[in-house]
Specification:
This is 3-hydroxyacyl-CoA dehydrogenase. In the central section; belongs to the 3-hydroxyacyl-CoA dehydrogenase family. The structure is a single chain. This protein has 307 residues and is an alpha/beta fold. It folds into 2 domains: 178 residues, NAD(P)-binding Rossmann-like Domain (Rossmann fold), CATH 3.40.50; 99 residues, N-(1-d-carboxylethyl)-l-norvaline Dehydrogenase, domain 2 (Orthogonal Bundle), CATH 1.10.1040. 45% of the residues lie in helices and 14% in strands. It is built from 12 helices and 10 strands. It has an 8-stranded mixed β-sheet with strand order 3-2-1-4-5-6-7-8, with helices on both faces. Strands 9-10 form a two-stranded antiparallel ribbon. α4 links the parallel β4 and β5. The structure holds 3-hydroxybutanoyl-coenzyme A. 3-hydroxybutanoyl-coenzyme A binds next to α7, α9 and α10.
């Protein structure tokens, strides 16, 4: 089904090479997806050779897992691995026509990366950002051609979650937008076109649920009772498991940015920031299955428990 708001009269640009700025967990996951589904060379970069190597190794490891589970053939596994390469130099991006960033979630860092990459890439190459909560148009204000920038927001876990938010700014051209929609389709994701506002659509809803879950704990209800109370919402995991899945620092950043945009409507995330520094909420068995809540985490945010 065609996404609501998709332009009628523009044609997508062909994508023959993908550049991924950032080699962290999420970036590696979608770099693999680009190589697997688009079948084009994908180059990843980061600030050090170690990080680049770790990113490529993570991708290779994930391809091996797909092979072990019979999800890809041995030929496909070799083909995907051959498509992925790493480089610390932006020069490797010179012939990329689709470049997506997933670097540290800080406006100045992202702007700096885009400012530099625009010097290297072709004038008609498209730029995308996987930001979850920063303004895409503010990010694009450093570009000489902001019409080539679009938000392209994946969800965790990237290979599994079907949805993708395609964020259109006031400047995003129709050609950029339809190319993003075509890429999303080839990745087998369902795209929704969203406005460029804090949290876009999904995180705005999630920030409310996760923020209120945290607030419940901080006001004295136990993690366990809040998780049980959230169950009727039908989420596939509890709010606290979900926060750990996206990463507690990322979760805290998302809640913070919503609070900054609408202070009276969103939880400020102070307790979650303490938990992010501590590192986790749940205790887990050797297989990674949740077994309970760490008493030290409970003590950090819920000193006045009543139940
Ligand atoms: N990474 C990669 N693949 C994973 C995975 C992970 N972390 N977790 C599960 N999978 C895969 C499994 O390998 C399995 O694949 P297969 O079918 O090929 O074997 C498939 O997902 C199903 O896994 P399971 O049967 O083990 O587990 P579940 O059925 O319990 O599903 C789940 C796991 C998909 C993670 C499900 O619990 C879920 O959907 N949780 C909610 C996730 C969610 O809401 N994400 C959005 C977060 S918000 C966000 O990312 C935005 C950001 O900006 C903050």
């Amino acid at each position: 089904r065609k996404p609501v708001g998709a332009p009628e009269d523009a044609s997508p640009r062909p994508v023959t090479k993908v550049g991924v700025l950032g080699a962290g967990l999420m970036a590696s996951q979608f770099a693999l997806l680009f190589a697997r589904r688009l079948g084009v060379p994908v180059v990843i970069t980061d600030v050090s050779q170690e990080r680049v190597d770790a990113g490529v190794a993570r991708i290779t490891g994930e391809v091996d897992k797909l092979l072990d589970r019979g999800r890809v053939s041995p030929d496909d596994a070799n083909r995907i691995k051959a498509l992925v390469s790493g480089s610390v130099s932006y020069d490797a991006f010179a012939d990329a026509d689709w470049v997506i960033e997933a670097v540290f979630e800080e406006m100045s860092v992202k702007q700096e990366v885009f400012r530099k990459i625009e010097q290297v890439i072709a004038p008609d190459a498209i730029l995308a950002t996987n930001t979850s909560s920063l303004s895409v148009s503010e990010m694009g204000s450093v570009l000489s051609d902001p019409s080539r920038l679009v938000g392209f927001h994946f969800f965790n876990p990237v290979p599994v979650m079907p949805l993708l938010e395609v964020v259109r700014t006031e400047q995003t051209s129709d050609e950029t937008l339809v190319t993003a929609l075509a890429v999303a389709k080839t990745l087998k994701k369902t795209a929704i076109i969203t406005a460029d506002q804090p949290g876009f659509v999904v995180n705005r809803v999630l920030a409310r649920v996760l923020g209120e879950a945290m607030r419940g704990v901080e006001e004295g209800t136990s993690f366990d009772v809040v998780a049980q109370g959230a169950a009727p919402l039908g989420l596939p995991m509890s709010p606290f498991e979900l926060l750990e899945l996206v990463g507690l620092p990322v979760g805290a950043h998302v809640l913070d940015s919503h609070h900054a945009a609408w202070p009276e409507r969103f939880y400020p995330g102070d307790g979650l920031k303490k938990l992010a520094e501590f590192g986790h909420i749940l205790t887990r068995d050797k297989k990674g299955n949740a077994t309970g809540y760490d008493p030290a985490a409970v003590k950090l945010v819920a000193p006045a428990r009543r139940d």
